[in-house]
Write a structure and sequence with these properties.
Blueprint (H helix, E strand, L loop, with lengths): L6 H14 L3 E5 L5 E4 L1 H7 L3 H4 L4 H4 L7 H12 L3 E3 L14 H5 L6 E8 L7 E8 L1 H21 L10 H18 L3 E8 L2 H8 L1 H16 L8 E6 L2 E7 L3 H17 L16 E8 L7 H17 L5 E3 L4
Parallel strand pairs: 9-10
Antiparallel strand pairs: 1-2, 1-5, 3-4, 4-5, 6-8, 6-9, 7-8
GO biological process, one term: cell adhesion involved in single-species biofilm formation
EC number: 2.7.7.65
GO molecular function, one term: diguanylate cyclase activity
């Protein structure tokens, strides 16, 4: 049977291991002096043994004094209590850099830090500070968050026009309807339809039809000035515009501006009425008054009926209707 290694060999082996592992390792004595500063720390801090061994930890790392790190070291040395610093609150506590270029830019390694008490036979307690580079994991998490945001935006955006889609409209309508009832404010809904759009598609082709939808949607959505307003593609050539805190008079002014803007685009439409021969829109307005709360279905139904009336009365016009 082999004899166990003597104390000196064990200490040498431990030091070799701590200098080889791919993480930062710092050991402090009970007076918070640095007794071990491994090769990983030398590489990423730029501080060699001659600058740190025997020095007070907070002289070497003054930026950590008085914060969470000092409290964790105190807990380890005097209360025998380990600590794991929250990566959310302490993303890069140590001035550690992946390269000299990163150091010049002051771009720190993202870190996970653990402070552990160490019992030393015949001597006061020491503590071990372990620092892991979690930059790749943090970067991956950031990428996943960004991808999730893109996916969410795609889920709520119309694939052709880029404006809000029907799902987004439904969510926004539910939210604004609740807000209007709770706050006692008016809520207006505009239903907007491109006149004779089927005839446009038949005459010019579906590619031109798609371009027409994109152009009209961009122009009308660009008229919205408030963050709470929303324009959505409701279906086919029909759009819906939610206007919170807007009464019927204000909604009518907005609708007229929309009708005029669509006409200003001067998109040729040979199959529209004989006078204009260009793309126009018809608009139906429904408004939930301050003192008359109605269901969402009633508001949408009234706007739809008003739109139908605008079409029946000649198109390129506006009609309004009170929700029942």
């Amino acid at each position: 049977m082999m004899n166990p290694l003597n104390e000196a060999h064990r200490l040498h082996l431990l030091h070799s291991v701590l200098c080889t592992v791919n993480l930062g390792a710092i050991v402090l004595d009970n007076e918070r002096r640095i007794v071990l500063w491994n090769s990983w720390m030398i590489k990423h801090s730029g501080l060699g043994h001659d600058k740190v061994i025997g020095a007070d930890f907070f002289t070497v790392c003054p930026g950590l004094r008085g914060g969470r790190m000092e409290a964790a070291i105190q807990q380890a040395l005097y209360n025998n209590f380990p600590s794991l610093l929250s990566q959310t609150l302490n993303k890069a506590p140590f001035a550690l850099h992946a390269s000299p270029v990163a150091a010049a830019r002051n771009e720190r390694i993202q870190q996970a830090v653990e402070v552990t008490p160490i019992a030393v036979e015949g001597a006061p307690r020491h503590c071990l500070i372990q620092i892991s580079d979690v930059s790749i994991a943090v970067g991956r998490e950031k990428l996943l968050r960004e991808q999730a945001m893109v996916l969410r935006s795609q889920t709520f955006a119309d694939g052709l026009t880029g404006i809000a889609n029907r799902r987004h409209f439904d969510v926004a309508m539910e939210k604004e309807h609740r807000r209007a009832k709770r706050g006692g404010t008016p809520l207006s809904l505009l239903m907007i339809d491109i006149d004779h759009f089927k005839a446009y598609n038949d005459h010019y082709g579906h590619q031109k039809g798609d371009q027409c939808l994109i152009q009209v949607a961009a122009a009308l959505a660009g008229m919205l000035k408030r963050p709470c307003d929303l324009m959505a593609r409701y279906g086919g050539e029909e759009f819906a515009m939610i206007l919170p805190e807007t009464d019927v008079e204000q909604a009518t002014v907005m609708a007229e501006a929309i009708r005029a803007r669509a006409q200003e685009l001067a998109i040729p439409h040979e199959r529209n009425n004989a006078e204009l021969r260009q793309v126009t829109v018809s608009i139906g307005i429904a408004t939930q008054k301050v003192d008359t709360a109605v269901e969402i279905e009633a508001l949408i139904g009234a706007a739809d009926r008003a739109l139908y009336l605008a079409k029946r009365n000649g198109r390129n016009r506006i009609e309004s209707m009170l929700p029942a």
